[in-house]
Write a structure and sequence with these properties.
With 184 residues, the protein is an all-alpha fold. 68% of the residues lie in helices and 0% in strands. The protein has helices spanning 22-31, 34-48, 53-70, 80-105, 111-124, 126-139, 152-164, 168-182. Helix 3 runs parallel beside helix 5, helix 5 (111-124) packs across helix 8 and helix 6 (126-139) packs antiparallel against helix 7 (152-164). The protein is globular, with a radius of gyration of 16 Å. The chain starts with 21 loop residues before the first helix and ends with a helix.
């Protein structure tokens, strides 16, 4: 799938050069260059599942920074092309982490943070993200980690509610609802 949509908004502040910190800009550009991203993303997928709150929050922040770097709005930055390429290659994998996280692979106490990250993707490249979410839900487990059955209509309701949702706070409640079915 080719991610080509764009959003209005500002550039990711982590990528912009502060007036007196050219080294910070160079480091961020290097970090978001394709060779590094192609290695970092698979590692982040594995690390997201360890259940350590601070580590998981850092990984989710990385995913949000990646998508906002790929779609910076009106400003063009050097890292944009590499971030877009990384999303074209790994977008489904990242959304799998987020959706499977809501489905029990990541502790439920992080469901709001998972929702925030998913929302950043929805805001940045909605159509592609919806396709990735649909694919993730098709492969999401049919049972919670504790063995409770999760009905197919629960996953379909999550998708249809997500598809219609235009409010971040409402989306968080949609995500909490799905996570509640898997973490009951």
């Amino acid at each position: 799938m080719d991610v080509t949509c764009a959003i209005q908004g500002s550039c990711n502040p982590a990528i912009e050069e502060p007036p007196n910190n050219p080294a910070g800009r160079k480091c961020a550009k290097l970090f978001f260059s394709l060779p590094y991203l192609q290695n970092i993303i698979p590692l982040s997928v594995a690390a997201a599942k360890i259940g350590h709150r601070e580590a998981s929050l850092s990984i989710l922040k990385f995913y949000k920074d990646l998508v906002t770097t790929a779609f910076p709005g009106a400003k063009m930055i050097d890292a944009q092309s590499d971030a877009l390429t990384a999303l074209n290659t790994n977008g489904q994998t990242i959304i799998d982490v987020l959706v499977f996280g809501l489905a029990g692979e990541i502790p439920s106490r992080l469901s709001i943070e998972l929702a925030d990250c998913l929302w950043a993707f929805l805001e940045s490249c909605r159509n592609e993200t919806l396709q990735w979410i649909r694919s993730s839900l098709e492969r999401a487990p049919d049972h919670s980690p504790s063995g409770l059955a999760v009905r197919a209509d629960t996953k379909q309701k999550f998708y249809s509610d997500t598809e219609k949702c235009e409010d971040k706070e409402h989306f968080k409640s949609i995500c909490r609802s799905l996570a509640g079915k898997y973490h009951a």
